[in-house]
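WARN retry 2 of 3 for item q-0093 after timeout on previous attempt; input resubmitted unchanged.
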Amino acid sequence: MDKQLQRAPARPARTCVVIAAGFCAFVLLAGCEESPLPSRPSAAANRPSPAPVAAAIDLPKVDQRLCTAVALLIDTSGSMSQDVRDRGGGQQAKYLIARQALERIVDYTTNWRQTHTDRVLQLAILHFSSAVHEVLPMGVFDGETAKSAVQKIPGPGGGTAIGEALKAGFRSLYGSGCVRKYLVCVTDGENTAGPPPDLIARQLHKQTGGEVEIHFVAFDTSAARFAFLKDANGSVVEAADGDQLQAQLSAIYEKRILAEAAAEQP
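OK item q-0093 returned
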């Protein structure tokens, strides 16, 4: 009787084991499903970013005629107050040495005009620091007017807006209507205000087809700062002191610009 009343072992625990095992298998199978592979970057994403470009620059549109126009740009930023060796072997502020070099250019041009009366030469003088200012508007060269303008160039102060100076110089040149156009810039530093000069130079070159010949004199600084000029019909030379500055300006202005003006055919 006791054996008949003895109950068989209950099965729910086994059933739970089976259910649990099945659930675990389901989880394992679910975990084995393929995860999506990370997407590969597109070809466009691997391309280098395009080089920045400057917007089109507004330039005067004047009928061209046979004459020569020169825009002289003089740096009057704060660093031009620093001393370097002058032509006498002493020490003098760079802006004073640059002013003296301009005075010699004016004197030389005055003498040149006396023997080239049939040649039309226009000249503009601009100075720049954080902004650009014109002390001699573009016009037919007059010695006394040009000499007076040089004396109006102020002392140094502020930043260095080389890009803006390039734009102002080109506007002055294109307002002249001359076929031959030259820009000469004396600067001692890198651009610290306004747009980068390399972008401006390349944009102006693109717009004008390289009609303007650009000459930089890196005064007491490295010419490597202005290596971009080779892509814009330009060149750069170094001048460490007063003697070298005068020699470089003489080579550019007297032996190239005025020599070409004298040789042009009417």
